[in-house]
Amino acid sequence: MNPILVTGGAGYIGSHVVLALRDAGRAVVVLDDLSTGRRDLVPDDVPFVRGDVGDGALVRRVMAEHGCRAVMHFAGSIIVSESTREPLRYYRNNVAASQALIEACVEAGVESFVFSSSAAVYGMPERCPVDETAPTRPINPYGRTKLITEWALEDAIRAHGLRVAALRYFNVAGADPKGRSGECQPVASHLVKIAAQLAVGARGGMSIYGDDYDTPDGTCVRDYIHVSDLADAHLAALRHLEGGGESVTLNCGYGHGYSVRQVLDKVGEVLGRALPLSVAPRRPGDPPLLVADATRIGRVLGWTPKHDDLGKIVSSAITWERKLLAEAAP
């Protein structure tokens, strides 16, 4: 079978998808500019091209050289707070670069395209769990860039017959159970990542942003999905498209949530001691509850998660942080 082009394949989620593809016996080519990814997260036997996904000529050359007929697109900027400070960079990295990639794919005759989207497209949903028919009202530049790219793909579907799976992630966490990859963002922004850093001594403290929400314990509730389950969802989406399935937009979550305090309590339980925590004011734009209605992904793709366990998610994240700490030791 022809190789799959994975953009951003040296990043957190992209590298896990590369591992899942290789475990499934699929050939892969990775394109990544290493602005946030790590080259050592890509297996040595996977062809790697360092470059910008927005470079249409480069993308066309790579696809022609390797005969790629499918693309999985992860490259882009992902930190919500950063997007509010540097919105134009997010439009350049997420919208303009994706448009160039989509155009190159259409010109090259790519048949299947799996897009890394986000639950951020929903903004502050009126009801929860939120399903794929909910209004899309993003409240930050990051969410808007994801939604605009979804729109561009919808138009490419209608005009050019491209088959697309847009996967809207909820809160991705954890690390490869075999220790081959994990989150390496230079600036941690995800709760489980930050808590795992605190657990291994890589940071001195952390704050809970708001403990007066209308939730059972006053802290925000989120749907946390293990990154390896998310990788399997991408493979299922690819198989769906390659088998002639129609284009589809799907939530990626478990359909239930945990509060911030529940996550931190679980970290303490795994660690065997409580974490040093403080409470800070709410952050603007944080919805109290954000949980996926995950019915559709199971029905359409036959996807069944294997790691739907908060303890497993937290333990794998802590193990990965210990590995990073050991690598950084003199």
Major β-sheet strand ordering: 3-2-1-4-5-6-11
CATH topology value of the largest domain: Rossmann fold
The value of Rg in angstroms is: 19 Å
* Total count of domains: 2
Indicate the overall shape: globular
CATH superfamily of the largest domain: NAD(P)-binding Rossmann-like Domain
Which architecture of the largest domain per CATH? 3-Layer(aba) Sandwich
Helical content (DSSP H or I, runs of 4+): 40-55%
- Major sheet summary line: 7 strands, parallel
This entry's quaternary arrangement is single chain
Ends distance:
44 Å
Low-confidence stretches: none
CATH class of the largest domain: Alpha Beta
Give the class from helix and strand content and strand pairing. alpha/beta
Number of distinct beta strands: 14
Please state roughly what percent of the residues sit in beta strands, choosing from under 5%, 5-15%, 15-25%, 25-35%, 35-45% or over 45%. 15-25%
Determine the mean pLDDT.
96
Number of helices: 10
From N to C, what is the helix and strand string? EHEEHEHHEHEEHEEEHEEHEEHH
